[in-house]
Design brief:
This protein is of the alpha+beta class and 88 residues long. 45% of the residues lie in helices and 14% in strands. The protein has 5 helices and 2 strands; from the N terminus they run ααβαβαα. Strand 1, helix 3 and strand 2 form a beta-alpha-beta unit. It starts with 8 loop residues before the first helix and ends with a helix.
Amino acid sequence: MYKNDTRKEYSEFSAIPHLKQNPEKIMPLLVVKAGQDSSDLNETIDPFVSEAKAHRIPLEYREHPDGQHGFDILNDDETSREINLLQR
């Protein structure tokens, strides 16, 4: 869901409202922003990270400035390899 989406489905499908429901039950998160991804998608990541931090949800945030959507497969570079190691 995009950050300016006002449809009622926002509360069902957006991750942000779910952070507010029982945040103590949310497992630690790894959030990665691909710098070359869609701006509509990337604009939703910072508010999500802020909300997670506000609820003290364990979170590791990384950014791949040159990464495209699917960088873990499409960008064969050192940043992709470093981020992929975090997922294991």
